[in-house]
Amino acid sequence: MENHPPDHLALKWLSEQGEYEEITYGELLKKANRLAGGLKKLGLTKGDRVLVMVPRQIIAYVIYLACLKIGAAIIPSSEMLRAKDLSYRFQHSGARAVIAWSTLTQEVDNIEEEHPNLQYRIVVSPDDSSQSLPSGWLNLSNLMEGEPDEFAAVPTHRDDIAILAYTSGTTGNPKGVIHSHGWAYAHLKIASTLWLGIEPGDIVWVTAAPGWQKWIWSPFLSVLGKGATGFVYHGSFQPNQYLKLIKEYGIEVLCCTPTEFRIMAKIDHLGDYDLSSLRSVVSAGEPLNQEVIEVFQRVHNLTIRDGYGQTESTLLIGNLMDSPVRLGSMGKATSPGLIEIVDDSGSPLPAGEVGDIAVHLDMPALFKGYYKDPERKKSNQRGEYFVTGDRARVDEDGYFWYEGRNDDIIISSGYTIGPFEVEEALMKHAAVKECAAVASPDEIRGAVVKAFVVLVEGVIGTPELVKELQSHVKALTAPYKYPRKIEFIDSLPKTNSGKIRRIELREKEYSAGK
Q1: Are 246 and 252 in contact (CB under 8 A)?
Q2: What's the rounded Cα separation, in Å, for the pair 346 and 349?
Q3: Which of 139, 223, 407, 468 has minimal CB crowding within 10 Å?
Q4: How confident is the model at residue 513 (pLDDT cuts 50, 70, 90)?
Q5: Rounded Cα–Cα distance for residues 404 and 507 (Å)
Q6: What are the contacts of 374-378 at 24+ separation with CB within 8 A?
Q7: Are 213 and 168 within 8 A, CB to CB?
Q8: Do 88 and 476 touch, CB atoms closer than 8 A?
């Protein structure tokens, strides 16, 4: 980033209320250096884990850059996480610091468990005010005050941890995915160049929010790494507003979630909006419906190029910049020979046969491992490959075609949700005897969480109880995980050993949706 012209705009920020700010590469780097100096003076050192929970704000970029400069490992955390979610991350990671937006500190303070490693709580106040600091919290602006504009980055090796991202598991708590400094360079080469197609000077809008691996992928690494100008909109999703902003800010590269594209495709008078500034339009998080792609092609002559990746990697398969799009396909491998469809023994399958999407272990953008659980990565290895959990086939021309997941992970509006987290929250309600959470097809979100609930004896399932259970889950864990559908049943299907057969419930949902 130091090589980009210091007077070139790095970010344009707009709030829902119309507030506007912008910052050059030079000023962004100075702020990051001042914060790096303050964090180092505070006592944070190379290898320390720092949990960051900040919304779509310019300061988020400053914080991430500063943490990387001191060699700290960033734990990206969504604004939607609750005290239980945060407590697990603090316990598992041994984080020494948390940096949180002022409206989010309460969830940290609501944690009941003791976390002796957590020495520093740092608050980011939008008005830079330190007059009403929460008890025990430091003000981020105060840490930067008086620090020099220059900071020599702490030397790091390509294998040193840079990001510790948590992703949902099928049978337990979230897994800590380790990404190294070397991963960042590999990602920049693959996703920002081959797929997003970002060129220096482009105005790029990626709608992902800080706290997710996708934000690190694109708004952070790809935009700043390529010397582009990132457009940051801090507001709720409104399809008409999004479409107007594309024209108003001259967006050239756009990346939205499939859910956002689905909703935009359904609005009246889509053709009235001027989208002529767009040169590259992509979608990621879950498969995008073919009919949505066709709408934008027909109305605006724009082709939305789908992409597939995981928290554990970077973009693996996509409709790349220089390849013809084959509608309905996931696209081609970003690293030919390193992404394959394999059988149960880990051998690549011939064209046309359905198998598991697998990443060769030599791929530089593959994660280093799961934090504190080195055996878990090995359990997902098959021969020379890491198996992603998704199934597909590849045709004679190298195009991949998605077939579905082979595990119980639920992907809804791009969020990955483990059934365990939903079920654990539901089981804390006095009315619930047993439960199982599965994916249920949804036209807008791709899928939603559905819970099958067995009630304790004497309790009757009512619409009021459905709402009560949904509110109960929202209070205990991030609200995007709550079950939008609940069905009360007498018993759950189980194996002979007593394990819940979620696959049977999931297949029932998808059969009913056809």
Answers
A1: no
A2: 9
A3: 468
A4: low
A5: 11
A6: 376/175
A7: no
A8: no
Q: CA geometry: angle at 180 spanning 165 and 119, to 5°?
A: 60
Q: Are 307 and 319 in contact (CB under 8 A)?
A: yes
Q: Using DSSP, state whether 464 is helix, strand or coil.
A: helix
Question: How far is 399 from 254, CA to CA, in rounded Å?
Answer: 23
| Residue keyed to tokens 């105060």 | 142
pTM of this structure: 0.89
Residues 6+ apart with CB under 8 A from 499: none
DSSP string, 19-35: -EEEEEHHHHHHHHHHH
Spell out the domains of the chain, with CATH numbers in brackets: 19-156 (3.40.50.980), 410-512 (3.30.300.30)
Bridge partner list, 333: 317
CB 450 within 8 A of CB 483: yes
Residue type, 66: A
Query: Quick one: tokens of 406?
Result: 């082979």
274: CB partners within 8 A, 6+ apart? 246, 247
What is the per-residue pLDDT across 227-275, written as a single tens digit (0 to 9) for each? 999 999 999 999 999 999 999 999 999 999 988 999 999 999 999 999 9
Pairing of β 399-405 and β 9-15:
unpaired
Query: Exposure of 199 by Cβ count < 10 A (0-12 exposed, 13-18 middle, 19+ buried)?
Result: middle
Asked whether 481 and 421 are in contact (CB, 8 A), the reply is: yes
d(CA 308, CA 316): 6
Q: Judging by beta carbons within 10 Å of its beta carbon (0-12, 13-18, 19+), is residue 482 exposed, middle or buried?
A: buried
